[in-house]
Amino acid sequence: MSKKRGLLAVVVLLSAVGCGGGQGAATKKSPDAKGGTLTVLAISDFAHLDPARNWTMPDMMFGTRLLYRTLTTYKAGSSEIVPDLATDLGVSEDGGKTWKFTLKDGLTYEDGTPIKAADIKHNVERSMAADINGGPDYAQKLLVGGTDYKGPYEGKHLESVETPDDRTIIFRLKRPAGEFPYTVTLPTFSPVPESKDTKVGYDNRPFSSGPYKIEKYERGKELVLVRNEHWAKQTDPVRLALPDRIDVKQGQDKDTITDRLIASAGEDATSVPWGSAGPQSLSKILPNPQAKNRLVGMVTGCTDTLVFNTTKKPFDNPKVRQAIYYAIDKESVQTAAGGPNMSEIATSYLPPTMTGGVKQDVYQAPPTGDVVKAKALLAEAGVSTPLKVKMTASSGSSNPLEVSIQESLKKIGVDVEINTVDNSVYYDTIGDQGKADELATYGWCPDYPNGSSFLPPMFDSRGIKPTGNSGNVAYFKDPAIDKKIDETYAITDPSASNKAWQALDAQVMRELPQAPLQWGKRAYLIGKNVVGAVNHPVWAAQLDYAVLGVKPS
Question: What pLDDT, on the 0 to 100 scale, is given for residue 397?
């Protein structure tokens, strides 16, 4: 959501920091914001830039705003969608089972060649190839024949995607999907010309249909973007393309990034961080009025979770999963995130932002946990203690959340070894059934504001693969849940649909393949000469690269 959350580092924001932040967050599009170099200070490399594999929120924001365009997209800092490559938001004449999009005139790649409907079809098809894994799987699940299709590399094509001419693309779906205009905001629906497709190697050099192209990419060190001179602004309603260059400097230390942005000297005055500010960073930022005024943040709409690998004993037993849930001191987790003004204790998967403020709580567990209940459930499950397990964590944070969980579980005789892996391979690791530990920290954000982009990706068993899993990383299989997902998809009334997704949330909670921990907030400290910094409400409050610019020092 997502899909998906990007790095499950601590996400924080003081309530005093409003959406839009301070002076650096102004969205004024003044002429002096055109040009210059925007520097992005990053801890590690991207997970994926290939649009067929790109499914973490930071990477999706970066890729779809700068390197490639999609059929529809979101306005800057808004949940409203607008046409992007397409002339409109799609046309359906059969209640949402068939969708037709027409491409705009004048769309070209970085070499000046025209973007064709067949190129979008090709990327949709390649997203289903075994080696091109890890990306959004909505197309595979929605398109007729998608679940059995194995990609285009053996000469076979998906008949449910038609391109009768260079400007027309038609999608035939298994079920009515009124949300499909939102679905095609995802990078799966970006164009990739077959002649430029280097398969797995495409991750290293996507061919640009957006306002920038790659000048240099040294994995784990630096990515430099320069203007795509063939991008036609008149066809693009959202991207301002203000900087001349965007320089992503990877391998930076998180504390050093914070110190540099606080000082905001030299190139750091025109820099932004890749990751959000954690408690340690905020302890430096907040006492400094000048720096505090440059925080940009909002609620993420995401849910942080503890994932149970349901294929590994004893976590194949729901009672064991429930025992762990009762044992967790969520107030300690909240403290690790920076306190109650920086995160909210979660009691369900769907965040209140997606349920009209409704907060479900199936277990009614005390915020500090219930050790007695947890031990009783372990005993009922026949689990002897001490129980030794591993928990995968990302190198992108100092792991205060994981340490908090570790300390909670120690109270019930569960010894947790924290297995830290590099952020750039974190999702590949927990998405590989052969490598996944018993536990992992995780998080999910909606790809679009509808329950269908939250619960099915996390819990539908029919999308589980040996590797490249990006949603159902608990490897959870329950035919009753799969059936309920299909039934809920079929509900076309928005109000009834929302209630059905909430009911499904409660049903999955009783099985508990993932334990909800917190609903986070996110803040970014930007350089003093950065303009146009706004958070995106759908994509996990990430900085929206479509409108970022810099002004002269």
Answer: 60
pLDDT in tens, 316-349: 999 999 999 999 999 999 998 878 867 899 999 9
- DSSP assignment letter at 145: T
The answer to whether the beta carbons of residues 377 and 322 sit under 8 Å apart is: yes
The maximal CA–CA distance of the chain, rounded, in angstroms, is 69
Tokens of 205: 């050099």
CB atoms within 10 A of CB 228: 22
- The pair of three-digit structure tokens given for residue 552, joined into one six-digit string: 């002269």
* pLDDT above 90: residue 278: no
Burial of 112 (0-12, 13-18, 19+ CB in 10 A): exposed
Which residues make Cβ contacts (< 8 Å) with residue 176, sequence separation at least 6? 95, 96, 97, 490, 492
Distance CA 224, CA 281 (A): 26
With 60 as the cut, is the pLDDT of residue 10 above it? Answer: no
Nearest to 501 by CA among 358, 365, 364, 363: 358
Q: How many domains, in total, are found in the chain?
A: 2
CATH number at residue 379: 3.10.105.10
Measured CA to CA in angstroms, residue 63 lies from 228, 396, 442, 451 at distances of 14, 20, 22, 24
Inform me whether the pLDDT recorded for 533 exceeds 60.
yes
Give the CATH number for residue 192: 3.40.190.10
Task: Give the integer Cα–Cα distance in Å for 482 and 462.
Answer: 8
